[in-house]
Amino acid sequence: MGPDESRGKAGGTGFDWLMQIAYLAGKSLDLNEALPATVAAMAELIPCEHVVVLQLENDVMEVRAEWSRPGARATIDKCGFKRTPGTSLCDLDVLHAAGGGDVEALPYFHHDPESEHGVVALTVPLAVDYVCVGRLDFIRDGAGEDFSAWERHFAQACARILALSVRNGAEYARMAWLAEHDPLTGIGNRRTFDVALNRELARAERYRRDVSLLLIDLDDFKEANTHLGLSGGDEILRRTAKVLAERARKGADISCRIGGDEFAMILPEIGERLANELAMRLVKDVAESTMSLWPMRFSYSISTYPATSAEFLRRAADAQLLAAKSRKGRVAVPVRGAVQ
């Protein structure tokens, strides 16, 4: 059966629909924008209860987009699962499952356990140059028709288009992530810090609220790097970032690495006293986290708006940090701004 045999089934020819799907799939590099309309268009030509796009990353398949017919009794769980070893990357497969309940081959799919009918699933791998990037699944109620030869052929054509979109979308997401995050530690980078600080200061000025800036510097980090090697130094930075990220209030505080061994936290609606208490806890937790690698020392500084003007907030924090580092080594006990 050829593409022209789809005429009248959904309007136009198979070629027309492939052009439409290619347009929708390539409309945006952001898969959250491109995929929903694309899977809905495919569902119009290949009638089914569910269409699911899975993305493969680090050998884990994750539901990236799904379309379900209104009134469908089964549910799609947007979970991740390990790809079955030996799964073909070139051939489509048709799965038949009798009766209700979950379908073992479709771990994300939860069927009505009281259903008398099973399901029929058409699974098509998404591959670019024989490298698997995901899978395209069409799921039909077992009481309906099996997938025709034309539908299988058309699904493969759709998968070739979709594979490129998923691969390009994944690369776009990776580059977008790198633009805002430090690749070593996974927290925000200097660009994210600058944007967030300006945003939070503007918000604090508008609503007359506090915002504190905490800077933490790892003293003698070069010495630790010399003794531990680059991998050991990297692990110290990762452990430091992990503590800052875990202690941050979700959706409020912003943790960033803004220099080689300098970290920052932006603390909206926190005054100087609470910020100082948080800083002492943070450096204590970081010291405990890195102790097994190297007995690190830390300096920190805090500046708070409106006690410090928005224009000079960062400058004040930098000056206090330099002062704290100069006191390090000349004190026997921790003082505000220096932890030993």
Description:
- This protein has helices spanning 14-25, 31-45, 149-180, 190-207, 221-247, 272-290, 313-327; strands at 50-57, 60-68, 75-76, 80-82, 93-97, 109-110, 119-128, 131-141, 211-219, 254-257, 262-268, 297-305, 338-339.
- The protein is α+β, with helices and mostly antiparallel strands.
- It has a 6-stranded antiparallel beta sheet with strand order 4-2-1-8-7-5. A 5-stranded antiparallel beta sheet has the order 10-11-9-12-13, sandwiched between helices. Strands 3-6 form a two-stranded antiparallel ribbon.
- Strand 7 and strand 8 form a beta hairpin.
- It is elongated.
- The model is unreliable at 1-8 and 329-340 (pLDDT under 50).
Strand content: 15-25%
Strand/helix succession:
HHEEEEEEEEHHEHEEHEHE
What does the radius of gyration come to? Answer: 27 Å
Query: Structurally, how many domains make up the residues?
Result: 2
The main sheet orders its strands as 4-2-1-8-7-5
CATH superfamily of the largest domain: GAF domain
SSE class: alpha+beta
What is the CATH class of the largest domain?
Alpha Beta
Keywords:
Alpha-Beta Plaits; 7 helices; 24% strand; 13 strands; 340 residues; elongated; alpha+beta; 6-stranded antiparallel beta sheet; Beta-Lactamase; 41% helix
SSE layout and pairings?
Blueprint: H1 14-25, H2 31-45, E1 50-57, E2 60-68, E3 75-76, E4 80-82, E5 93-97, E6 109-110, E7 119-128, E8 131-141, H3 149-180, H4 190-207, E9 211-219, H5 221-247, E10 254-257, E11 262-268, H6 272-290, E12 297-305, H7 313-327, E13 338-339
Antiparallel strand pairs: 1-2, 1-8, 2-4, 3-6, 5-7, 7-8, 9-11, 9-12, 10-11, 12-13
Helix pairs in contact: 1-2, 1-3, 5-6
